[in-house]
Amino acid sequence: MRTSIATVCLSGGLAQKMYAAAEAGFDAIEIFEPDLIAAPQSPEEIRALADRLGLTLDLYQPFRDAEGVDESVFADVLRRAEAKFQLMQRLGIDLMLVCSNVGTATVDDDEVSAGQLRRLGDLAATYDIRLAYEALAWGRFVDDYRRSWRIVELADHPNVGICLDSFHILSRGHDPKQIEEIPAEKIFFLQLADAPALSMDVLSWSRHHRLFPGEGSFALPTFLAHVFRAGYEGPLSLEVFNDTFRQTDPTRTARQAQRSLRWLADRTAELLGEEASRTGGPLPRLPEVAAPEAFDFVEIKASDTSGVEVLLEQLGFDFGGRHRSKQVRLWTWGAARVVCNDVPSASPAPHIAAVGFDVADSDPAAERAARLMAPPVHRRTYAGEQALRAFTSPDGTEVFLSHAEDWAGEFDGGVSSTDGHAVRIDHVNLVQPWHSFDEAVLFYTSVLSLTPQPSQEVAGPAGLVRSQVMSSPAGGVRLPLNLLPSGQLPTDQQGHAQHIALACHDIIGVVTAARERGLRPLEVPGNYYDDLVARFGLAEDLVDTLRDLDLLYDRDADGEYLHCYTETVGEVFFELVERRDRYDGYGAGNAPVRLASQAT
Amino acid sequence: MRTSIATVCLSGGLAQKMYAAAEAGFDAIEIFEPDLIAAPQSPEEIRALADRLGLTLDLYQPFRDAEGVDESVFADVLRRAEAKFQLMQRLGIDLMLVCSNVGTATVDDDEVSAGQLRRLGDLAATYDIRLAYEALAWGRFVDDYRRSWRIVELADHPNVGICLDSFHILSRGHDPKQIEEIPAEKIFFLQLADAPALSMDVLSWSRHHRLFPGEGSFALPTFLAHVFRAGYEGPLSLEVFNDTFRQTDPTRTARQAQRSLRWLADRTAELLGEEASRTGGPLPRLPEVAAPEAFDFVEIKASDTSGVEVLLEQLGFDFGGRHRSKQVRLWTWGAARVVCNDVPSASPAPHIAAVGFDVADSDPAAERAARLMAPPVHRRTYAGEQALRAFTSPDGTEVFLSHAEDWAGEFDGGVSSTDGHAVRIDHVNLVQPWHSFDEAVLFYTSVLSLTPQPSQEVAGPAGLVRSQVMSSPAGGVRLPLNLLPSGQLPTDQQGHAQHIALACHDIIGVVTAARERGLRPLEVPGNYYDDLVARFGLAEDLVDTLRDLDLLYDRDADGEYLHCYTETVGEVFFELVERRDRYDGYGAGNAPVRLASQAT
């Protein structure tokens, strides 16, 4: 499988983009014309740089406003094209993307477009160049790949083929199945992009909001399966216009892009099953690993975590012992494990440094993560200690693939067996900086096989917070990722706190006991309870209990949710939750109240 | 004219929003329910705070899913409503916004909706509360103000009237003229919002992208004139959901909001002409001031501006003398004046600190600015010196309303009379931080009567830059405002440079002479010139000249544009431009090349 990326996906100058693509393991790039025009290097220097980096230059793009024009205009098209063919020769590129006409088309006639493409093909042939014709989703007359294919068929020229782009096809809702009817040798190129489901004009959607496969909501494995069934054997090339990637580190973006293709190839191979061997080249598979269905532990790090330990004790955690060789203490409550790690050099405020996911066999899981280019974490271990497999997630939180039975013996208290009120970690909420939010979705989708749920927005006093839950099929692992308001940086304290939610069966009993141990939950305003009465028509005595305990309440068709929050210590707080019946949410309607209370 | 603002427009907690609204001079607020629910103060405390601040509570909003429902559901609507009426009594609010049903509507029948509103009105009457029914643009059945008015007419209840919201009407393209047919006493409330022209679903557009009047593209003076012609005499209330305002200083946002209403009232009074006295209350007018048609000067400040002075001399500026009492030096070239101000305490890098606009009579212009709450600038003056009128613009740049003849005599060289090549300042490009971009558009629209032109986006190596030109009717003043990529803060150096563009009649001669004086223009890559040939089919010798001089070129149907840039000193650089024929742009197509060259 050859992988390629368009230079427009990455920030920086052209040379910088090429270094990033090569470093991430891409085989090829598409040269986006404005990147070349703005580059100080000559075409020959770019060609030589690509050679040195082991990159091939697979496509020059785009050539616009080529067909469907009056003959007088077409003369100038040929003149423009020839200048570009000469340039491509200097670059050593033999394939040009020709997109369907947006600006100058005046003739809505397949025969005319085909005839003009044929003549362009004749000219291109004299330079040994081939043309890949692509239907833009907003083309003036040609905006559907089935029509662009009809025109290519009519052109009937060996140097004229089609370019397929998943965005232009799926954004319009066009059925990709008919791709299978196109002869493989006429599919000159394939561009891939994902995108979130947005209801906006397709041009703005395309220019600002494309994503890498696995970050959006297009059914790309299905799309790609159709392309392979057609017999396509060319490169898989990413073309992603995205406002964020345009301004973030190109090396990091390129790795994220490569990860997305490896995940996509694996998913497509899974879908094709036995067909896979009969189509395309062999697709590289990833080790199959089921999504974890439980959290193994959460690690909180600080120069001094004692404030967190006071909270843990008040909540109902038992001290589970000290680590035999590190300044680390284990706290357990039923199946919930929290590790407090005092590190003088760490950022001083307590924060979630690592999340362990319960993986029975960590070897294939770690192998999968490595194949997906997750950066490994190395922590010092001593003789007789378990070397845990861990990787750094995009926001810097370390992700451990672990299993408590393998490591709990290193603590002198062992694993507590009191099951408390059958407590377990319900969810871990991680705050994401704006620039790595989409990358995090791909990371957890691909590395841990978690599934993104529909995202929500909640209003806080300092802006809107977008929440994207990643979860395992049975709901044993739930990971809400909170995106800060765009203007906020991760260094802003406001709204930056992360939290650990603990599920129990009797929250009223648990909170009553915790208050007796000195816990002071986050205060909930009285107006909230007045509204609860109006909204849900709850019984007065239930509302009184909720009010006394600062408990929040939510209800939907599937059940009820009672929850409360602790105060924040450093950058961490805890939530206690009780899910009744089949309630599957997170009390999003209460989030504005929580955010406002935390801000006062 | 009573002014009001919905609490949802401002960031912070409810009390903080109320302080901000009062400080900005609002008479009233609308209480947005989630703000009250999340507030720690009781309704009685909020009411007392409003009293102390001199604010009235004009509206409680929103009450949802009220009509068009089955009778079984309506029983619960009445129960919910009564709880809210009791709450409103505690707050002392007698008007509730009832929006058209989005979630629970099942009956698409005006008679049913009217009957249910009438019964809600009966219940409201027992609490002396009135209901303002509003058609949401995305209502399930009722999404047009003409239909909501028909329903209110059918309800025929003294406590049931209509609420008009400019966003819900103009976003759908509904003609506001028929507002004039609604009896004034049935228009219970008026909400105003502007918005940019966006092609996206109306719900997202409304929830994230509303703007204050004068910041978007709705024809709000026309809209408001229809409302006044109907005889409406109630408050003008702003309801603006905007992602940026949700996270920026509420005091500043409230002032911006108040400014928008003062501007809107003035524009509407202008439109109504003699009618104004017969409609509504008297609308406050602003002093009428024509837009300036020339820049008076630009001031560059730094701890040491000598690097800029070297550039000025190379470009062709003449030294115009020292100020008689300050460390300030004047440079002139034709009608272009640049003042260099060495201030040890200033931020050390040279930057544009002030822009003077040529205003023949600065008194009414300054009075207008003051009425629009532009923060005045006070600079120390000595006996016999002109006290210039100046205000701080949203990005911190000081805006002077001045006229060189009044102040140039304070410099020992006087104003140079050499007209050089009839040089003048063509445009001044100011970089805007993300959080004050819309405010800047309103500032220059209202204070200086400049007109926003269609905005453009250009790709740079560190992200997309949005450019919004504000200009005077004859084009004598052009002020491109550049919005940095959303992730960048004004403290980032990247892309933060501002510039002064100087127009001349013979750029080839001017640049040739400047190079002889040692000027080194920003280098333009060779690939750019190869593309110029392909794109425009320019003559080889012209392209050779452009290439030799690092000149950029653009052409449109109206004319040609030749321009080049100096290197950047601190945060400032200069551009030389020659506009041929009626070319009216800024060479936006060349901006990516400029940004890339500046980044290397």
UniProtKB/TrEMBL annotation, chains A, B:
A Pfam family of this chain: Glyoxalase
This protein's name: 3-dehydroshikimate dehydratase
Record keywords: Dioxygenase, Lyase, Metal-binding, Oxidoreductase, Pyruvate
Function text: Catalyzes the conversion of 3-dehydroshikimate to protocatechuate (3,4-dihydroxybenzoate), a common intermediate of quinate and shikimate degradation pathways.
Residues binding a divalent metal cation, per UniProt: E134, D165, Q191, E239
Pathway entry: Aromatic compound metabolism; 3,4-dihydroxybenzoate biosynthesis
Stored PROSITE patterns: VOC (PS51819)
Listed HAMAP family: DSD (MF_02238)
EC number: 4.2.1.118
Lineage: Bacteria, Bacillati, Actinomycetota, Actinomycetes, Propionibacteriales
Domain called VOC: residue spans: 424-567
